[in-house]
Amino acid sequence: QKEVEQNSGPLSVPEGAIASLNCTYSDRGSQSFFWYRQYSGKSPELIMSIYSNGDKEDGRFTAQLNKASQYVSLLIRDSQPSDSATYLCAVNLAEDYKLSFGAGTTVTVRA
Amino acid sequence: NAGVTQTPKFRILKIGQSMTLQCTQDMNHNYMYWYRQDPGMGLKLIYYSVGAGITDKGEVPNGYNVSRSTTEDFPLRLELAAPSQTSVYFCASSSYRGAYYEQYFGPGTRLTVT
What we know:
The complex is a heterodimer of chains A (111) and B (114).
Chain A: E1 4-6, E2 11-14, E3 19-25, E4 30-38, E5 45-50, E6 54-58, E7 61-66, E8 71-76, E9 85-93, E10 100-101, E11 105-110
Parallel strand pairs in A: 2-11
Antiparallel strand pairs in A: 1-3, 3-8, 4-5, 4-9, 6-7, 7-8, 9-10, 9-11
Chain B: E1 4-7, E2 10-13, E3 19-25, E4 31-37, E5 43-51, E6 54-57, E7 64-66, E8 76-78, E9 87-96, E10 101-105, E11 109-113
Parallel strand pairs in B: 2-11
Antiparallel strand pairs in B: 1-3, 3-8, 4-5, 4-9, 5-6, 7-8, 9-10, 9-11
């Protein structure tokens, strides 16, 4: 079983809609969770960090964490063409400085 | 504040050649990492360092070496390039934020071995 799994893409959503990305992880000791956005040909950019159960909102982005079910999700509200990218989920253990990454979900926002 | 910088941006190597990928960060981060990313795949950790003089292997260290003589620099060395090392290489650094470590990435080096 992979440590971090993301829903397979690509995900195509119309402009203005909500894009929903899911990520599950295998290690129950995982404590902090990250979403990175990666445009084609560019490096990953950190967009959300979350380590407590519940929701965390930042602009049009909402991260949701459920440690009991071992999943973390990212919602992109009012999707824009500029949101078209690959989104990487990353997980680490308590006070562990290494991250485990999922393979990514590619999102395309169509005008 | 330049963040994490990497050189070169692109490189083509012949099989058996050697090269060093450079990585520098100006954020005074203790932790630094090297990843490779193959098409359609996530990031695989090659090596990491928790401070000057301390390095350790990640998931895929074979064929690579690292050193960390200063806090700022973390070069990655390929000794005998092989086609399997064709990939995009990212360097990252992180700091402790009180509850977790956030990693920040450099722009990457696209390497082709032919």
